[in-house]
Amino acid sequence: MQDGAQHAASSAPDGAPVGVRARFPGLARRLPWLVLALLAAFPLIAPAFGLEYYVGFVRRVLIVAIAATSLNFILGYGGMAALGHAGFIGVGAYTVVALVEAGHSSAWLAWGGAAAVAGLAAAAIGAVSLRTRGVYFIMITLAFAQMLYYLAVSLRTYGGDDGYGLYTPLEMGAGLDGVHPQVFYWVVLAIAALVFALFSRVAHSRYGHALRGIRDNETRMVALGYPVYGLKLAGFVVAGAVAGLAGGLLASHNAFVSPSLMHWTQSALLLVMVMLGGAGRRWGAPLGVALWLTLEEVLKLHTDYWHWPLGLLLLLVVFHAPQGVAALFERRAGREAAR
Amino acid sequence: MSLFRAEGLVKRFGGLLATDHVELAVEAGEIHALIGPNGAGKSTLVNLISGLLPADAGRIVLDGVELTRLAPHQRSRHGLARCFQITSVFRNDSVRDNLMLAVQAHAGSSFRCLARRDAEQALQQRAEALARRTGLAEVLERNAGTLPHGVQKRLDVALALASRPKLLLLDEPMAGMGPEDSVQMVALIRSLASEAGILLIEHDMDAVFELADRISVLVYGRVLTSGDAAHVKGHPEVQAVYLGTEAGA
Ligand SMILES: Nc1ncnc2c1ncn2[C@@H]1O[C@H](COP(=O)(O)OP(=O)(O)O)[C@@H](O)[C@H]1O
Ligand SMILES: [Mg+2]
Predict the structure, then answer these.
(1) Which residues of chain B have pLDDT under 70?
(2) A224 to B102: CB separation less than 8 angstroms, yes or no
(3) CATH for the stretch A2-338
(4) N or C: at which end does chain B have fewer Cβ atoms within 10 angstroms?
(5) What is the CATH number of domain B4-90+165-248?
(6) Hey, are the CB atoms on A231 and B111 less than 8 Å from each other?
(7) C-alpha–C-alpha distance, residues B39 and B42, integer Å
(8) What percent of chain B has pLDDT over 70?
């Protein structure tokens, strides 16, 4: 019994916390729905606690979590340490700007376009970058993202360095606009939930297994007959498209787009959040994003030197939970279940 | 016509001629052993044939199909499979997951991304059949990295078998094994010869003489001689270069 629980807790690094499952059968299955219900109810109950301001904050967490989930897919499952993911967020955001500037006002066209254009950019960048490995891959993805950054800086029509304000909100149609001040929040939540559910599902598919095989032993996968390059490129394109979607949503969220969205420090931050939460773990990306952004928000209230405690936290995680917070949670749950 | 032919294979590492115009053939159902001292270029040859290293010159033909310019995964689709001198399995996965991954590679598309793979009964059955055949049925749920060396080696061979290859390249499958595991491996290799040609690289001379239909001797990247066990044992240069040093050691 003891052995079984220990083994179970360690043998499913990407699934829901197995220890929890052993202790409360059904809870692990219901946990995502519980989280979803709480998040859905939040805009309705927030005013009662004077937390209206935080509805916007949670919306930002959700959008960043979408981008982080896509990065976790290629980094954690695919072993591709891309240091240019914010570039695709930027491509998505600027696609929205370009469509608005051209006179379009449909939100779905803008966000869909953001995903499509970012996916195309990822196809081009990935086709070149994925011919390299290790440090070279990190550097080349960084270089491409910096090119996109300077491209945005040079685009005078879209404000260059100063950025571009989106003064009228995009129209979602279908009677959604103006029904409730927080409609956009729920739309973001629905998209985030869908993205999370899809990636969770893909992780257990043939493709998901193949991707992890490539991460763990690429040479063997090649020898086994897998078209490794094509498989990686497909993952890279999908991740880029989803990051672009997040960029499109972020443009609407901020009602403003500037090149700083895709500065390389943003890419690095995204990597840090994924690793903090737990790369290659189902809950890694949302956990990391929620933890990091919440701490940043809280610390900013109390001190101008909020970078220091955050850095300290990062060190702590590196030494005590190198697999990320999600892993720590799984391990603790496993130990308790074994008692 | 031979099942497999390598013609004029050349590989240079800087100034080192690691593969020196190698000619090699394997017939269907044949176990062709390749022996030679360390550093002779045996593993390099396997890498050239499997495509993990590009050859500088030469041709490779398997079952009438020229593989020379194909990527390694395409060569695998045409019936080539290999195991590795340094055991190469998925250490953090169970034996079952290892076999599933190998079986999946040659049974439909791996771009399928919504259906749950482990629910595919056909794949599970093939993985289990492979496990029974290679003596891994008892350790199906064990993590590959926790298994004894000899069992991991067997898993390495099992992964190569999943594609039902026409030609199997075995790079020192018995290296570092105890006598018991060796006996099991010899039996396994013998049972494979009925369905695939085998190029066997091995230092264990007892195993080689027991298994091989033909033996080629590689020295400094060159094929010194080729023939049956009696021929190789009696070859004066071979005795000097290889068997002599073995006997003296
Ligand atoms: N990737 C490589 N780069 C440079 N030299 C190599 C490489 N691989 C092998 N060699 C050299 O080629 C020669 C043959 O090596 P190898 O094929 O591993 O021999 P064997 O398998 O017969 O022991 C050795 O001298 C080795 O040092
Ligand atoms: Mg070798």
Answers:
(1) 241-249
(2) yes
(3) 1.10.3470
(4) C
(5) 3.40.50.300
(6) yes
(7) 7
(8) 96
